[in-house]
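Milestone M4 deliverable, item 7.
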Amino acid sequence: MIKFGYTILYVENVEETIAFYENAFGFTRKFVSPDNDYGELITGETTLSFASKKLASHNLKEGFIESSLEDKPFAIEIGFITDNVPETLQKATSFGAVIVSEPVEKPWGQIVAYVRDLNGFLIEICTEVKS
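Output delivered:
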């Protein structure tokens, strides 16, 4: 059996990033290493994790492309489902998220907005897709 367990984002400051996601989205801290190089949030069935760029450099000796608000976002996003997109968007921006796109209704009825976090990662804030 294989199951999707977690996503790890490489960030400058794990503690600051964990606090952002706790405040902006209401997630609960699961674990932060004593050296603040790694942390996890309880977000539902899949864990959202963060590793310091320093730790990532030790694991990936050939390097990696760093996320930054100054550059375009990567061709990947984290999706957070909510019943109230405008309220969640407002709360996220009050804690430092940067709006990429205001809420729009898709042809299939889903409401979708986009923000970037403190590290420049792209986050979709949306309602659940109804089948």
